[in-house]
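Handoff note, outgoing to incoming analyst
You'll be picking up this chain. Sequence as last confirmed:
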Amino acid sequence: MPDLNVHPEPADIYYQHRILPEGDLYLLVNNGENALTRDFSFRASGKAELWDPATGKTVQAPRAKSTKQGITTISLNLESRKALFILFVSKESKTALLM
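Most recent structure output, in case you need it:
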């Protein structure tokens, strides 16, 4: 499986994935003209946190579903031309990542 699957798959989603000591960090960007709601399946596990880069606000990911194979699916709404960070905090990490 790739790092990220989007269901249904839009052409206007850009993402980056980085593996950090604290866990897996994903950046999602909706490059499209319209807001969208999709199911995003990440090749990551752990507590999922959503970070808004414009406001600095962080929240727990609602309705995150994880599998034994290390795949986590989250339904997300992304506004047009907006970005969102998703941090999957590893169980071994004892400190939060500060940006």
